[in-house]
Amino acid sequence: MQLGLVGLGKMGYNMRERLRAGGHEVIGYDPRPEVSDVPTLAAMVEALQPPRIVWVMVPSGPITHDTICALADVLSPGDLVIDGGNSRYTEDEPHAELLGAKGISFIDAGVSGGIWGLTEGYGLMVGGSEEDVARAMPIFDTLRPDGPREDSFVHAGPVGAGHFVKMVHNGVEYALMSAYGEGYELLAAEERVRDPQAVFQAWTKGTVVRSWLQQLLAKALKEDPGLSRVTGYTEDSGEGRWTVEEAIRLRVPVPGIAASLFARFLSRQDDSPTMKAVAALRAQFGGHAVKRVSESG
């Protein structure tokens, strides 16, 4: 099957390689000439035989919107655009309408797998019409891991459903990572536990907390015992925030996900104003000692 792929970063590059290994013809475009197959977006479209399928794998937000607008100008009726980035689901219907006005179909696809997807395959969550999803299924089947389709692929619903599911997926991911991190810190604080890495390694099989994330933490601890080569500063991609915002809108309690998001905010503070206020209050009402900043700063 022939496919145009826009965006050859960490994910897009590996997806191109996996699709080619699966027998598909992939023509990729990226602003970086060293990885791009063609010099321009228009050249990519020209190289594809209609009806075309173009997969967009660029950062969410303005870049995705601009790319879809540019494709609307050069694609033809009957073509199909798949947004595989981490776009917010509320952007999908406007994009579908923009393309639909020119007879171009649209699918939103949540993709999970990170840099390991090339060899392990990608989990896929898509939104769109039955007809459009069926048309792109050979591509989805090559990207996903081997085994039953239902174990790694879901047609979640109409346009927008795929990115909504991926948003929740990433919110759950936030909470899982925080739980594993808290467990590691507690193990490392106890003198009786000789090797926290060995504990996480032993949880890899048979335990109810085993998972790919848990295995990756065991790997990280083996490569860097004590995690001395990294800081605790942690960014968020936006989807954790969106998950909490949607939970508020739908009145669904998500305390674990919310706490993990706020923990990331806390990680970026060198000296927490909140905890400064707590220390000051303890001194005010209870006369508790306060650790003061020295005059030298």
Major sheet size, sense and barrel closure: 7 strands, mixed
Strand-pairing-aware structural class? alpha/beta
What is the name of the CATH class of the largest domain?
Answer: Alpha Beta
Please identify which CATH superfamily of the largest domain we are dealing with.
Answer: NAD(P)-binding Rossmann-like Domain
Q: Please tell me the CATH architecture of the largest domain by its name.
A: 3-Layer(aba) Sandwich
Number of E-type strands: 7
Pfam families: 6PGD (PF00393), NAD_binding_2 (PF03446)
EC number: 1.1.1.44
Family: Belongs to the 6-phosphogluconate dehydrogenase family.
GO molecular function, one term: NADP binding
Describe what this molecule looks like in 3D.
Its EC number is 1.1.1.44. By secondary structure, the chain is an alpha/beta fold. It has 2 domains: 2-157, NAD(P)-binding Rossmann-like Domain (Rossmann fold), CATH 3.40.50; 167-267, N-(1-d-carboxylethyl)-l-norvaline Dehydrogenase, domain 2 (Orthogonal Bundle), CATH 1.10.1040.10. 49% of the residues lie in helices and 12% in strands. It has helices at 10-21, 41-47, 62-74, 92-100, 117-120, 130-143, 161-189, 196-202, 212-223, 239-250, 255-267, 273-286; strands at residues 2-6, 25-29, 53-56, 80-83, 105-112, 123-127, 153-157. Helix 3 (62-74) links the parallel strand 3 (53-56) and strand 4 (80-83). Helix 7 packs across helix 10 (239-250). The radius of gyration is 23 Å and the shape is elongated.
Keywords:
2 domains; 49% helix; seven-stranded mixed β-sheet; alpha/beta; 297 residues; Rossmann fold
Tell me briefly what this model is.
By secondary structure, the chain is α/β, with parallel strands linked by helices. It has helices at residues 10-21, 41-47, 62-74, 92-100, 117-120, 130-143, 161-189, 196-202, 212-223, 239-250, 255-267, 273-286, and strands at 2-6, 25-29, 53-56, 80-83, 105-112, 123-127, 153-157. 34% of the residues are buried.
